């Protein structure tokens, strides 16, 4: 005999098991859920005890924090932080004149003020901010750091003829007539030559003339501020050093690498054979040469190929080499992103009547660059760390200045060496970790945006 029972009310909620709540629940889920988790937890704990704790003890607990010379650190078992404090200006600015330090400080402050809003997606005036950071700031920073007033005398034509033999410069007194007359004449002759070549190959002359006009206008805008005399003392780049050089090399390479890489990636996929072959040759050449070789060539061999009397600052030559090298590596990252864009995206753009550049700029490149954000940031981080190679060509970056400071007998102690390298390592870690975290933020934001677009399309 059986009796049916139907409960008319739900059971009251029961307390969770003890093993699933509180700190023990968190540990059991995260650290001891499987035998593999248990093994990794033991290995991680052992690494923490053997590596992290002694390092923390050396840097903090056993460290010396005050002192005027090596006597404070001779018998110390920990880091000698007074050494870092005494050499701090050298680590940051190198041998930049002390009375002119307000100039790199102003460059650092302006860079932060322009970069932070640019990295915040919700910040207003993005276009103006980008123009100021990528267009105005590099020129203003160069003028502030060097002093401007380059006073160039020749451009192209002036290297073969003497302008003063054909132009009465007395009528141009007070102006830098020689260079600018040479600039205008050279621009006219080069533009005429390009128009003739375009006519021979059957391309549109008007497009070639517009392109040359834009190029020479950009050169004039770039040269005019650095040629002006702002009354600043000239500081040669060989006096720069430390973190200043590290940031100049890294930021210049990072800013130049992406546009160069995009152009090379598009050129490698171009249907025009000459453009495709030239892009492939450029990429494979620079990817097949070590960066240290590039720096040696730019520093010591490039001056041998320049016309007589021409001189380019050593740091500027290194910057050009780093930019071309990093651009070649960036091109392959961007090409991978372009190949990941589905074919129907190109077909949809063609159906809308969009031309090649609008298709790339509005549809293809945004998707391609989003797909390869990890690769792009990985290249940037690698480039930031590769800046230490410039000390091979007698340009002292942060690590180079730290190594140079070890030769000071006033701070010779058993822990000075380790303290200097620890300081440099902390600086590099801060910048690289910040770039990696911002990359993760962009990935999450791009993924969320893609989901929103897909939902709206549905």
Describe the structure.
This protein is mainly alpha-helical and 458 residues long. It has helices at 22-30, 35-61, 81-86, 88-93, 102-119, 126-146, 177-200, 205-227, 242-268, 273-287, 291-305, 314-340, 343-351, 356-371, 373-386, 398-405, 416-457. It starts with 21 loop residues before the first helix and ends with a helix.
Layout of strands and helices, then pairs:
Layout: H1 22-30, H2 35-61, H3 81-86, H4 88-93, H5 102-119, H6 126-146, H7 177-200, H8 205-227, H9 242-268, H10 273-287, H11 291-305, H12 314-340, H13 343-351, H14 356-371, H15 373-386, H16 398-405, H17 416-457
Helix pairs in contact: 5-6, 7-8, 9-10, 9-12, 9-15, 9-16, 10-12, 11-12, 12-14, 12-15, 15-17, 16-17
Kindly summarize this structure in a few lines.
The protein has 17 helices and no strands. Among the domains are: 29-61, no CATH class; 88-95 and 237-407, MetI-like fold (Orthogonal Bundle), CATH 1.10.3720.
Distance between the termini: 58 Å
Give the biggest beta sheet: none
General form: flat
Q: Remind me, CATH topology of one domain? A: MetI-like fold
Helix content: 55-70%
N to C succession of SSEs? HHHHHHHHHHHHHHHHH
Structural Rg:
30 Å
Tell me, rounded to a whole number, the average pLDDT: 80
Percent of residues in β-strands: under 5%
Give the count of helical stretches: 17
């Amino acid at each position: 005999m059986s009796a049916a029972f139907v409960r008319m009310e739900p059971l009251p909620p029961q307390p969770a098991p003890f093993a699933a709540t509180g700190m023990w629940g968190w540990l059991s889920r995260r650290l001891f859920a499987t035998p593999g988790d248990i093994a990794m937890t033991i290995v991680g704990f052992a690494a923490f005890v053997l590596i992290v704790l002694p390092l923390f003890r050396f840097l903090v607990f056993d460290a010396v924090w005050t002192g005027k010379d090596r006597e404070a650190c001779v018998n110390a078992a920990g880091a000698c932080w007074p050494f870092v404090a005494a050499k701090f200006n050298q680590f940051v600015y190198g041998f930049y004149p002390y009375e002119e330090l307000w100039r790199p400080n102003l460059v650092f402050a302006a860079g932060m003020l322009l970069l932070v809003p640019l990295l915040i997606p919700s910040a207003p005036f993005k276009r103006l901010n980008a123009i100021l950071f990528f267009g105005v700031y590099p020129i203003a920073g160069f003028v502030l750091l060097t002093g401007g007033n380059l006073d160039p005398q020749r451009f192209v034509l002036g290297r073969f003829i003497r302008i003063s033999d054909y132009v009465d410069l007395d009528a141009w007194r007070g102006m830098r007539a020689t260079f600018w007359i040479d600039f205008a004449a050279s621009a006219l002759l080069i533009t005429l030559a390009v128009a003739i070549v375009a006519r021979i190959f059957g391309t549109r002359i008007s497009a070639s003339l517009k392109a040359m006009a834009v190029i020479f206008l950009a050169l004039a805008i770039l040269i005019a501020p650095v040629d002006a005399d702002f009354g600043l003392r000239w500081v040669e780049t060989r006096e720069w050093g430390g973190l200043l050089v590290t940031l100049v090399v890294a930021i210049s390479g990072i800013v130049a690498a992406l546009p160069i890489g995009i152009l090379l990636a598009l050129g490698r996929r171009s249907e025009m054979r000459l453009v495709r072959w030239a892009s492939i040759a450029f990429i494979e050449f620079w990817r097949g040469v070590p960066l240290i070789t590039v720096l040696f060539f730019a520093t010591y061999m490039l001056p041998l190929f320049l016309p007589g009397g021409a001189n380019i600052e050593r740091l500027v030559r290194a910057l050009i080499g780093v930019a071309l090298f990093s651009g070649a590596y960036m091109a392959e990252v961007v090409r991978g992103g372009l190949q990941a864009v589905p074919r129907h995206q190109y077909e949809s753009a063609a159906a809308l009547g969009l031309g090649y550049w609008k298709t790339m700029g509005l549809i293809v490149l945004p998707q391609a660059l989003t797909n390869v954000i990890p690769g792009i940031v990985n290249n940037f981080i690698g480039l930031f760390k590769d800046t230490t190679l410039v000390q091979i060509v007698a340009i002292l970056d942060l690590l180079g200045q730290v190594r140079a400071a070890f030769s000071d007998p006033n701070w010779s102690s058993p822990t000075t060496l380790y303290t200097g390298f620890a300081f440099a390592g902390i600086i590099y870690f801060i910048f690289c970790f910040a770039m990696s975290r911002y990359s993760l933020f962009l990935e999450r934001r791009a993924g969320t945006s893609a989901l929103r677009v897909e939902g709206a399309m549905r």
